[in-house]
Amino acid sequence: MIVTLEMEQIVRSVLNKTAEVYGIEPHTEVSVVLADDDYIHQLNRQYRGKDCSTDVLSFALNEGEEPQIVNGPEEILLGDIIISLETAARQAEEYGHSLERELAYLTTHGILHLLGYDHMTEDEKAEMRQEEEHILLLLGITRV
């Protein structure tokens, strides 16, 4: 699948809105990779021990510690988000919405993981879902 300018703009808008809502420092860096199923499958197997592809992976650089600062206080590294565009396209079709909406959702999900949100318990899952929908609503991105 070819990455389009529109896809890049969606990712940027989600990251910028999330930074605004959560007060993330202006010089914070997040790496986003828009990948295929094979690539994310390899990462999922290597880092999570799961031999399958997935929709999104997040790798936080601070894991509950102070943010990773490089090159002085002007550059903070938050972490990496990897999104499978192939899985995003399948899920968009399955859920009956656009690829753009699914990409926005997965980007939101990924950045929230970098900010410390998780969904291991039902309470965490509910809180994370509420935060995801809040960011998407602020961007005017709805489920339909």
Automatic annotation (TrEMBL):
Q: Which PROSITE patterns has this protein been placed in?
A: UPF0054
Tell me a GO biological process for this protein: rRNA processing
Q: Which UniProt keywords apply?
A: Cytoplasm, Endonuclease, Hydrolase, Metal-binding, Nuclease, Ribosome biogenesis, rRNA processing, Zinc
Against Gene3D superfamilies, the record matches this protein to: Metalloproteases ('zincins'), catalytic domain (3.40.390.30)
Q: Where in the cell is it found?
A: Cytoplasm
SUPFAM superfamilies (UniProt xref) = Metalloproteases ('zincins'), catalytic domain
Q: What is its EC number?
A: 3.1.-.-
Query: What residues does Zn(2+) bind to?
Result: H109, H113, H119
Q: Which Pfam families match?
A: YbeY
Q: Give a Gene Ontology cellular component term annotated to this protein.
A: cytoplasm
- Cofactor(s), by name: Zn(2+)
* Chief location category: cytoplasm
Q: Is Chloroplast given among the entry's keywords? A: no
**InterPro entries this protein is in?**
MetalPrtase_cat_dom_sf_prd, YbeY, YbeY_CS
The molecular function GO annotations come to: metalloendopeptidase activity; RNA endonuclease activity; zinc ion binding
Cofactor binding: number and manner: Binds 1 zinc ion.
Q: Please give the HAMAP family that the UniProt record associates with this protein.
A: Endoribonucl_YbeY
Function, as annotated: Single strand-specific metallo-endoribonuclease involved in late-stage 70S ribosome quality control and in maturation of the 3' terminus of the 16S rRNA.
The record's similarity note reads: Belongs to the endoribonuclease YbeY family.
Protein name as catalogued: Endoribonuclease YbeY
Q: Which organism is it from?
A: Pelosinus propionicus DSM 13327
The organism's taxonomy opens as: Bacteria, Bacillati, Bacillota, Negativicutes, Selenomonadales
Gene name of the encoded protein: ybeY
